[in-house]
Specification:
The protein is built from 14 helices and 14 strands. The chain has a six-stranded parallel beta sheet. It has a six-stranded parallel beta sheet with strand order 11-10-9-12-13-14, sandwiched between helices. Helix 8 runs parallel beside helix 13 and helix 10 packs parallel to helix 11. It binds 3-phosphoglyceric acid (3PG). 3-phosphoglyceric acid binds next to loops.
């Protein structure tokens, strides 16, 4: 897999960057206009080094992303993303193939070196179907392709696996960081403690099965615990459960103490998913675990939406070795060792 640093980007090269600007949007507190806002810009921010790298070489950059399931426009995200580009305007392209409208093909024809165009939500078109005609239509706009959307690379969609067939293809900086840092879990320092929480057991079971061969202990907490306990794998001595009643809505003191002791001895910890019923407010256990991990000497890698939120809430981002923004792609990558988007870049 080649890095963007290996790409031949010079003045005027047209670089198509697939980002994951599928960010949470809502009405934030203290927003008097009650207008929809991006609630977390992390997924935009991580794409900036890649986009700016190309811009600094004089490239014309076209950014593309999906947003939600394909019913809402990406425009609101683009407006917010513009704040991160103080030196250039982000030009929104509602319909890249429309030759008559002002926010259509003309934007691309008039794009100058060092400028950025952003396409409308890819899922308005045949993105999910990975339709070959659509793939070619996208590829024709550019000279090279960069995947800066690790968190969407578990989807075999047009902009992830289709375009690399038609353009020289490279991985962006954040893509490579996710790949390398999460990849450390396959060859970790020991003792390696894997902490799994959350609700969606089906998405986590393949991880448990895979990491039984790699981790020294796997703690299964949160709502997962009840389901896991009923399976034969619960008898494996590497698997540990909350102390006492495993159906509790949050981790109890005994469980947190037990985890604290194990974390003291661990050299590598991978954590995904809250320990309690986080969505309805049972988050004290998860907050305590985050604090303990932040203070530990172990190399700690964290992922999963709720887990990231907890760390944000505690303002402790800097205290972790790596916080993955990859969500479902993180789980798939850890379970399978690769993703469709990684294979497409090889
Ligand atoms: C995500 O939010 O996990 C990615 O953007 C992928 O989105 P999807 O689950 O809608 O494909």
């Amino acid at each position: 897999m080649k890095s963007i640093e290996d790409a031949d980007i010079v003045e005027g090269t047209i670089v198509l960057v697939r980002t994951d600007w599928n960010v949470p949007v809502g009405y934030s507190e203290g927003n008097p206009e009650r207008s929809l806002r991006v609630l977390d810009t992390s997924r935009i921010e991580v794409t900036l080094p890649t986009i700016n790298f190309a811009l600094n070489k004089g490239a014309k950059v076209i950014v593309m992303s999906h947003f939600g399931d394909g019913t809402d426009s990406l425009e609101i995200v683009v407006k917010e993303a513009a704040n991160f580009f103080p030196n250039t305007q982000l030009k929104f392209v509602r319909d890249p193939w429309n030759t008559s409208s002002e926010d259509g093909k003309k934007v691309l024809e008039n794009l100058k070196n060092g400028e950025v165009a952003v396409f409308e939500n890819l899922r308005f078109w045949a993105e999910k179907e990975n339709d070959e005609i659509f793939v070619k239509q996208l590829a024709e706009f550019a000279d090279i392709y960069i995947n800066e959307a690790f968190s969407t690379s578990h989807r075999a969609h047009a902009s992830i696996v289709g375009i690399p067939k038609f353009l020289p293809h490279f991985a962006g900086f954040h893509f490579l960081e996710e790949f390398k840092k999460l990849g450390e879990a396959f060859n970790p320092e020991h003792p390696f403690l894997f902490i799994l929480g959350g609700v969606k057991f089906e998405t986590k079971l393949p991880l448990v099965e895979k990491f039984l061969n790699i981790a020294d202990e796997i703690f299964i907490g949160g709502a997962l615990a009840v389901k896991a306990k009923a399976l034969p794998l619960a008898l494996n001595p590497k698997i540990i459960f909350p102390v006492g009643d495993i159906a509790l809505l949050d981790a109890n003191t005994e469980t947190l103490e037990m985890l604290g002791e194990k974390i003291k001895k661990a050299k590598f910890v991978l954590w995904n998913g809250p320990l309690g019923n986080y969505e309805v407010g049972y988050k004290e256990g998860t907050l305590t675990l985050a604090r303990v991990l932040a203070d530990s000497y172990a190399k700690v890698i964290v992922g999963g939406g709720d887990t990231e939120n907890v760390i944000d809430e505690l303002n402790m981002k800097d205290k972790f070795y790596f916080i993955s923004l990859a969500g479902g792609a993180m789980l798939d990558f850890l379970a399978n060792g690769t993703l469709p988007g990684i294979e497409a870049l090889k």
